[in-house]
Amino acid sequence: MQFRGLTEQEVRESRARYGRNTFADNGHISFFEMLRENFADPIIRILLVALTVNLVFCLFGQSEWYESLGIAIAVLLAALISAFSEYKNDTAFQKLQEEASRIQSRVYRDGRVTEIPVDDLVYGDEVLLQTGDRIPADGYLLYGEADADQSQLNGESEEVRKTALPAHDGAPEEPATGRDLFSPHLVFRGSVITSGEAVMKITAVGDRTVYGTIAAGLRSGIERDTPLKVKLRRLAGYISIFGYAGGILVMLAYLLHAGLNAGIPMEEYFELPWSDFVREHTGIANFWSDALHGLMFAVVIIVMAVPEGLPLMIAIVTALNMGKMLKRQVLTRKVSGIETAGSLNILFSDKTGTITCGKPEVIGFWNGQCQSFRKLSDMTAGYQKAVREGLELNNQAVLTGNAASGFRAVGSNATDRTLLEAAAALRESPLSGSTKTRIPFSSSVKYSGAVLTDGRCLLKGAPEILLPRCRLALDNAGNRIPCAPGPIQKLLNDLAAKAVRVLLLAETLAVSPDGRTAPEGDLILIAVVGIRDEVRPEARTAISEVREAGISVVMITGDRRETAMAIAREAGLLQQGEDLVLSSDELASLSDDAIRECLPRLRVISRALPEDKSRLVEIAKSLDLVTGMTGDGVNDSPALKKADVGFAMGSGTEVAKEASEIVILDDNFASIREAVLYGRTIFSSIRKFIVFQLTVNAAAVFISVVMPLMGRAVPLNIVQILWINLIMDTLAALALGGEPALPRYLKAAPRKRQGQLINRYMLASVGTSAVWICLIGLLLLNSAGFQALLGFDPENSALTGTAFFTFFIFSTVFNALNARTDSMNLLDHITENRLFFAVMSVIAVTQILMTESGTYSEMLGRIMNCQGLTLQEWTVTLLLAATVIPADLAKKYLLKRCGVNSEE
User: Fold this and answer.
1) Per-residue pLDDT reduced to its tens digit, 512-562
2) Domains and CATH numbers, the chain
3) Are 764 and 844 in contact (CB under 8 A)?
4) pTM higher than 0.85, yes or no?
């Protein structure tokens, strides 16, 4: 039959009217859009408010320009690093997706067949389809017949027979929908031709295809906040309250101190009405200036209370860990994905390729006498020929390669490829028979067949269907003997209990008149074939570790119940008597409330359907569980999108990857374990930084409030606060952002979605160190006896101010050692974080230069408010700063005795 196809003019007109065979951009956003989204972070919003207030003060000359610049730099760095990390990984993801666009299709154009990229196909094109081709668009068959594997669209493993649309039916006018998938004439993008040859006419391209409609549906929908974002929003509220309260106290204390210095009696602050107070003291010229300066300083305290290094730290630690994860075959498309993976409560996982290797192999053959054979070469010649015919002639896969380089089966389905490769070793000796017609697989009869040219019919299918019809069987010599179903049924049960999938090869001499179905009648059992997809060795360990981490794992598979249970036991999912296994039908019969009740015990869903996944995700989320889902097909995409974190397989469809937050490039469950570990590492690093940062901020705010109340000047000037608040924030983010992923993080229970970011251990750490730093600092600033004891001159306020500033900085440096580990060994795993010592060394060297700046330049000394220290003074100051370590060690010991740990 001749096909002309479209002309170039018709192609242009069709493309102008119906569009290209591409999808709308489903998930790729520009770098600047990612940057804008990062400014929605709750902490960054607080910083932007503080920056605005600082700019207002700067315009009126009441604030230094470099203070506002410092805050702006901190905000920009945080947003830029986070956006760059996401953009970099999104670009890598887009490169993976581009591979799909490079697939070539054979299309009729101007009367001849030509190969063009699938993106260049248009509505009305006539496309040649052959075995192994992926259908590039939706349409109907003009000519020929073929079997199509539509599992990527509907999750059904059975192939659908497609035939040419009769001319009298007329071409379909409306785009097809998911309900049309089993139409005998319509074909759909994403399906694969497993056998046959046909020509299709395209009736829908791009987003108008069923494939594209599912993809488009994933663009809408409200995503709930990640667990970390929920916790950060709550923390931002607490920090705001603390900062504003501290700022108000500082302003009142500053005004009180200024009034006392101006000779205003203290009681008049409280006894006189404000109007009388103003009339009484209008002659005090400096009071209003002091009031304005106190307001400015209050704003500085508010800014200082907000850990502006936190967004930067989150961006840095996420970027560092995303790079490490990519080396471990985990591609994080969205930052939220890795954050959420660390908080998972329940994970719904596919079986094939994730828990198992995804490479089924024939592990043995059994004849009618239940004798076993590891491979074909173990059989006698007569029996070997019969089994080879059943494997090769009733098979639609094709072998490529040769004996020297190795054979590989292509086309058809995984079962056919596995069986053909099992027979490949004997490929050099050709079989005498050949196939005349084929009987396609049907879910109603659960077998496929091949009618040979000599009139025999070979069948291959489910034992429960074929075995009852077997009256004869072959022995090892290839002779026919009476079939004994009892021993064979026992063999089948034993194999199913070992997670072995079983097929029956049979033969009949009777063929139906149409040659398309095997008639009812007696069969001859040729062999029982055992196929097994081995559980990944690393998956067993990974599942065990994930379960120890408190994450409930549910395996979802299309296997029969017995096989699914056997695999689940081998993988370590089924361990206790109360563990629950449900089939899809049983799941459908249960109400949502009943499933909520049994969800903690659920371990396996057998014979699962795609809609089961979406339902399970919705139910788990209704319980406020942080939910993960794996998937690879288009039909899995809705569930991947609904889950808090979707794990798409690297071998899966583009739509599944677009719907996910994380792509597991090697399809391995062990890589999911890595994602969970690094997610928890990021959370742990964030907590360490918060402890470090809040200790610094709390100590600085407390001293700034207390000193004016004691009638003393605030010991830190603007430049020193800027150094404490900004430079140390950024450097500390680098130092603590490089903390290693420790296996012990997987032994902790998952954190509740609505749980607190700051726990009892962190509060104790911040309180202990901050109070200790404040106590030593106040003694150093106010106690003449303490100063004399340390060898400082009590009359030299500049010296004690310098010593306090240096003590404060170095105490935070030493406290960084406390914050990075809850172990009594402060150097625990420190060699795995090379940045830590480097960053802390930079801080120490910079502080030494700042302290000694007055020695080399009088102007720098005034700016930094520092004068040089002697060797003795340096020694005393450093020893005072180091006392924060034993104070924190005492805290760790007491908390350990009380059963309070850092991972709660």
Assistant:
1) 555 555 567 789 999 999 999 889 889 999 999 999 999 999 999 877 788
2) 8-24+105-217 (2.70.150.10), 34-87+225-265+273-319+676-897 (1.20.1110.10), 332-357+536-675 (3.40.50.1000), 361-532 (3.40.1110.10)
3) no
4) no
